[in-house]
Amino acid sequence: xxxxxxxxxxxxxxxxxxxxxxxxxxxxxxxxxxxxxxxxxxxxxxxxxxxxxxxxxxxxxxxxxxxxxxxxxxxxxxxxxxxxxxxxxxxxxxxxxxxxxxxxxxxxxxxxxxxxxxxxxxxxxxxxxxxxxxxxxxxxxxxxxxxxxxxxxxxxxxxxxxxxxxxxxxxxxxxxxxxxxxxxxxxxxxxxxxxxxxxxxxxxxxxxxxxxxxxxxxxxxxxxxxxxxxxxxxxxxxxxxxxxxxxxxxxxxxxxxxxxxxxxxxxxxxxxxxxxxxxxxxxxxxxxxxxxx
Amino acid sequence: xxxxxxxxxxxxxxxxxxxxxxxxxxxxxxxxxxxxxxxxxxxxxxxxxxxxxxxxxxxxxxxxxxxxxxxxxxxxxxxxxxxxxxxxxxxxxxxxxxxxxxxxxxxxxxxxxxxxxxxxxxxxxxxxxxxxxxxxxxxxxxxxxxxxxxxxxxxxxxxxxxxxxxxxxxxxxxxxxxxxxxxxxxxxxxxxxxxxxxxxxxxxxxxxxxxxxxxxxxxxxxxxxxxxxxxxxxxxxxxxxxxxxxxxxxxxxxxxxxxxxxxxxxxxxxxxxxxxxxxxxxxxxxxxxxxxxxxxxxxxxxxxxxxxxxxxxxxxxxxxxxxxxxxxxxxxxxxxxxxxxxxxxxxxxxxxxxxxxxxxxxxxxxxxxxxxxxxxxx
Lengths: 293, 378
What we know:
The complex is a heterodimer of chains A (293) and B (378). Chain A has 293 residues and is of the alpha/beta class. Chain A has helices at residues 3-9, 13-22, 29-41, 55-66, 81-84, 90-100, 117-123, 140-152, 183-188, 199-210, 215-229, 239-254, 259-265, 274-292, and strands at residues 45-49, 69-74, 86-88, 113-115, 128-133, 154-157, 161-164, 170-175, 190-194. In chain A, a hairpin with a 3-residue loop joins strand 6 and strand 7. The longest helix of chain A has 19 residues, at 274-292. Chain B contains 16 helices and 10 strands. Chain B has helices at 9-23, 30-43, 48-59, 66-78, 120-126, 136-146, 166-175, 206-222, 239-242, 247-257, 267-276, 278-284, 302-314, 335-340, 353-361, 370-377, and strands at 95-97, 149-158, 163-164, 185-192, 195-200, 226-231, 235-237, 288-292, 317-322, 346-349. In chain B, the strands form 2 sheets. In chain B, strands 1-7-6-5-8-9-10 form a 7-stranded mixed sheet. In chain B, strand 9 (317-322), helix 14 (335-340) and strand 10 form a beta-alpha-beta unit. In chain B, helix 6 (136-146) runs parallel beside helix 15 and helix 11 crosses helix 13 (302-314). Chain B starts with 8 loop residues before the first helix and ends with a helix. The chains are: A alpha/beta (293), B alpha/beta (378). The interface between A and B is large, with 42 and 36 residues.
């Protein structure tokens, strides 16, 4: 999908929200607006939020909305240019040199170049969306490298010269905020903080994502999860966990457990921390009863 | 986008809003203001809410100041009376992070005498032997190499024992015209672990805080990655000021920065507050954490227990150094200490600089868990 098409798709925030809903992602007004602005202003989109609020899912939905392939770059401590930009296929180069014998050979040919996510996106900006996932895990050096990439959308390969994107690619960055990102990076992006959704929206998301969960169940799960998140837990459950919980409880119920019991027995998919579990266990019965009421 | 010499009247409001935010210490770049206006124009703007969302998306207020931002927005665009922005409730532990001050290493003026003034005699009489009364300079020297290490993801060039560095080997081969010289190797680097000092500055620790801060200063100077926080009723990050080379100056700045000297302790809450800041708790991951405190938690110690358990789950090694342990009759008998003993890796004597610095230098050596040691004693 070319840039003109992308602009057509993103005619207004509402159009974006409708399209996203069609690809099974429910965005609130703020997120729809941020995505709309990122596409129209041609800036990267920086999504921050607690783990499990659907940042990566949002990126997947945007790729689907634009009908493009998602290229994902997962960051980690120690990630460097060879993992993000490009690398030469040294084994093949060595073989080619030996094979060539006396002949002339260009070992910096395309077939020896391994394109990593950033280069892949530069080569086909109209067909790909770049997702730089969990950027807060990478080191400061990598952040600086990315900054350079995001401002000019070009990569210099010493042996080959500079490769520039034909049009501006769409880039989405996500961060769990385990550390503060550089101001320069935040400044360059359209920013959105994804919070936990309210109960009604979460119920909708659960229905949309799981398929076979009854509406009453979804609503009860959403209410209970809101209650649980209000407690001081080490790892508050995300949306994905809530969906899993609804799924698991439904399966148990079909298998013969009565309602409140099914929720209690499926709690292992919602809370995955022993300490949190023992903190919530005495109250769980009451929370579920209240949510079901 | 059209941008004339003089801005239309409607646009001036946007500029003014950004200016007002800057006055309230929001970092907003000119290009962000431009995008803000572009965004508002793109959205219509059909309603006030469009402008609000454009502001949130382009001016990017940090999530912890979001409420404040919204209050400013309402005050500016709706003309609301400014709601009092305190943001800090009484039961919430205040956190102070000294990021604003630049780490300008202010030069200390040295009174160096000219050559003609320093006769041999004078030199003899005024010679300042490197005094090491508190043993800190040898601690400084040995610290960097004494900290526990881990294998980094990064590789370094090496001459022996490593894997083949294909990238460099190939360029060697190309420059040698296809001949294969000795292969080049690389190996994963060994880096020292992070060191986190949490210093209790409450009234009961009064006698020791001065020494502890000296130790903290030396640690920050000597270790690659060290962080220092003080806690009492609040939590204060003092690492940036301790980076100043001159000790007296650094300690004076630290003294000014900390607001809760010699007050009460809310150890449990302050440590939980530490853990609730993602940046801080991420620093604790895989680090050596040394808490310098007597752990005299008044009243309910369940917060302290939770905090210590979470810290211990993140840390490479969690140690508590208490001045009370200087007394040979000391036993971990208080309810709070008994509760946290199982999660502690070390419970050691923190009554003197010597014992403390020896302990920190020994962090890399394995030791039995605190509980086992103290069970044997009692």
